[in-house]
Specification:
Strand content: under 5%
Shape: globular
Number of helices: 9
Largest sheet: 2 strands, parallel
Helix content: 40-55%
Strand order of the largest sheet: 1-2
Radius of gyration: 16 Å
Structural class: mainly alpha
Distance between the termini: 26 Å
């Protein structure tokens, strides 16, 4: 018998199925992974998530495994190298925002008790479990995503509005929005 999944999953795409089954909604506690996911969500703005998933390996290669120390040191020649890379989304503003966010990540690591705590503070350190019947029942933003967007923007982050932040909270498992009929659904 086939597993029941959330309605947004492209069942015909093994990459999307694996992402749903193994990653989406799993709480992420590693600061570097949280930062990588935030960067990828920013690149996703205006595009579909499957586009980013298909390019994720190229993004990781292009951005040195999303090592914030290395990315923070990127200069103009790196921007041009990235702009010429067909494996990633070649949006200059998003590339520059990612480089700047690496610098901001390091500042938060030093000043805010760490990026993990900075991000998880918007949910009080514990995942929020929702109980949508359909993925269409899940909101596109919430008080928590609006708070995170405000906090990130105040620090200088770009491409992090409340809708992007809600998708980020879902992806990183701060908000669990698996449909109640999904095999990954677990009541809190």
């Amino acid at each position: 018998m086939a597993k029941q999944r959330c309605g947004w999953v492209l069942e015909s795409d093994p990459l999307y199925v694996a992402y749903h089954d193994e990653e989406w909604g799993v709480p992420v506690h590693d600061a570097r992974e949280l930062w990588e996911l935030l960067c990828l969500e920013g690149f996703q703005a205006g595009l579909s998530w499957i586009t980013i998933l298909r390019k994720r390996a190229a993004f990781r290669d292009a951005f040195c495994g999303f090592d914030p120390v290395q990315v923070a040191a990127f200069g103009p020649e790196d921007i041009e190298r990235l702009m010429a890379n067909p494996g990633i989304v070649r949006a200059r503003a998003k590339i520059i925002a990612t480089i700047e966010s690496a610098r901001l990540f390091q500042t938060i690591e030093r000043e805010e008790g760490g990026f993990h705590d900075f991000i998880w503070s918007v949910v009080g350190g514990k995942s929020i479990h929702n109980h949508p019947i359909s993925f269409r029942d899940a909101p596109t933003k919430s008080a928590e995503s609006e708070e995170l967007a405000r906090k990130l923007k105040a620090r200088g982050f770009k491409f992090c509005g409340p809708v992007i932040c809600y998708a980020y909270l879902q992806a990183a498992g701060l908000v669990i929005d698996h449909e109640t009929s999904c095999h990954r659904y677990q009541p809190a």
